[in-house]
From TrEMBL:
Domain of life: Bacteria
Transmembrane segments: none
Official protein name in the record: Gamma carbonic anhydrase family protein
Organism of provenance: Metabacillus arenae
InterPro entries documented for this protein: LbH_gamma_CA-like (IPR047324), Transf_Hexapept/Carb_Anhydrase (IPR050484), Trimer_LpxA-like_sf (IPR011004)
Length: 171
């Protein structure tokens, strides 16, 4: 794992957060309690702040970056799947970004929204609360089912617990 100061900014990481080996965290980044950042994820806060809120997980190979004027907020208990690109956007609590998903500058993923794997949310697009979105570009398809929302909560809980397990085993 690499945690690097850039200019006047050093990452702020809660002691309960898990940072996997190979993850790179640079500059103006704040990671809150029980969040987890997995193998080979890159969080680069060189333009604006990246805030990873409590219990959120950023999975293996994901890239989180900002542009000037476009900070990143990843809300409480959000799941960012493997190999996602999260760029200058806001993802509200309990949302899920499926594997290989991309969310671009100015986009907002509302609370409990669910992005299918491989979806592309274009600049300034808003995915409304509790909606399932898919495609390139992403379009809202329907309201997320209670089953899907339950699976999202289970996934976030799994990653919180898995982060604790890895931390306890000093991995």
């Amino acid at each position: 794992m690499g945690i690097f100061r850039l200019n006047d900014y050093s990452p702020i990481i809660d002691p309960s957060a898990y940072i996997a080996p190979g993850a790179q965290i640079i500059g103006n980044v704040e990671i809150k309690a029980n969040a987890s950042i997995w193998f080979n994820a890159v969080l680069r806060g060189d333009n604006e702040k990246l805030l990873i809120d409590e219990g959120a997980n950023v999975q293996d190979g994901a890239v989180v970056h900002s542009d000037p004027g476009y900070p990143v907020y990843i809300g409480k208990n959000v799941t960012v799947g493997h190999n996602c690109v999260i760029h200058g956007c806001k993802i509200e609590e309990d949302a899920v970004i499926g594997m290989n998903g991309t969310v671009l500058n100015g986009a907002v993923i509302k609370k409990q929204a669910f992005m299918a794997a491989g979806a592309l949310v274009t600049e300034n697009k808003i995915i409304e609360e509790r909606m399932l979105a898919a495609g390139v570009p992403a379009k809202e398809l329907k309201e997320a089912s209670s089953n899907l929302l339950e699976r999202a909560q289970e996934g976030a809980s799994f990653y919180r617990n898995n982060g604790k397990r890895y931390k306890e085993n000093r991995i």
